[in-house]
Amino acid sequence: MSAPARQRSRDETLLSHAHAHQARYLADLARLVAVDSGSHNADGVDRVADLVGAQLERLGFDVERVPLPPAHGRRVGDALVGRRKGRLAVADGGRRILLAAHLDTVFEDGAAAERPFTVSECIAHGPGVSDDKGGLVAGLAAVEILNRAGREDYAELVFLATPDEEIGSPVSRPVTRRAAEGVHHALALECARENGDLVIARKGVADFRLAVTGRAAHAGIEPERGANAALAAAHLVIAIQALNGRWDGVTLNVGVVRAGNRFNIVCPAAELLVEIRSVTEVGMREAVAALRALAGRPAVPGTGAEVHELESCPPMEETDASRRMLARARDIGARLGLSFGGAATGGVGDANTIAGCGVPTLDGLGPVGGADHTPEEWLDTASVPGRVALLAELIADLGDGRRG
What we know:
- It is built from eleven helices and 17 strands.
- The chain is of the alpha/beta class.
- The chain has two domains: 3-202 and 316-403, Zn peptidases (Aminopeptidase, 3-Layer(aba) Sandwich), CATH 3.40.630.10; 204-313, Alpha-Beta Plaits, CATH 3.30.70.360.
- The relative contact order is 0.18.
- The active site is at residues 104, 165.
């Protein structure tokens, strides 16, 4: 059998297994969607971790359950890291592949009962059905059909499931960085864009608190003795927002402004909460430098401003390596009858952290879905077999480094 014919046979086998797995996929998805697992519902997140961990063990993974410290003073659920050896040694061309998903959703307790899992005309609804339970189950399904097809063409699969992605992964990032160590490629399991595109780039984000200080004075008797921090903050808001457009792919937003507490006092203190997003690390550095420079030049005499960085996450930059991964995914997709491109998004995910570790990363490898973070969130169940087969074949393709 010629190589192209052999490859077509392999593709057809995986697609056939994916179609046969569809009922199981929907049952597993319904089971996860039925559990309230908002980021701050640690018990609910842990119940999802129980279900996913059991599935991973059944699929031959050694599973580590990682307890995490509180996030913002509240307990979060455990992270999961599963590892499964393939049949190719790294020395013989085998590659380590990281599959990354998350266990939590943005929804409050009670959402699962208010909006239970439903499927109507191939469209599934329910809290987290797309973000990210649909992608999480797709990763498990892809490994299952690879096992069935005897396609263990990799050195190792690492399956990461984090509990706090929807609040910025404040406590799981060290786990993510450790999981990314020694990995050759990463496939993140957020669902594909509504048009079917994969995600090749995500903006990085950095959050800042600007503490503006002034000098209090009686606003009626001796206002000239004061230095109005609210006025200084207002100038800063205008100046910061004016930075938008200076660099391609960089946005700045003053999201919160607080100042003063009495009508009759010249305002002595104010606070700005500022977010910067950038498609590149260079753009982020330049924007942060500009923010600090503005804070160092107060527009109101007698006032000052200090910049405090709160949290940051690096951009998932489009690179030559990620473009090659996208090209390989598109080649596989074409063989499976799928057509898609590569999209850039302003949203941040665990893929940012992984890419920031220097691992070539491609995201959006779950089924097609949309309206994330809203009651209308949906997943196209008709897209599931093709997307699961795509993910499975991409794992095997990237996992065998002898293919180039």
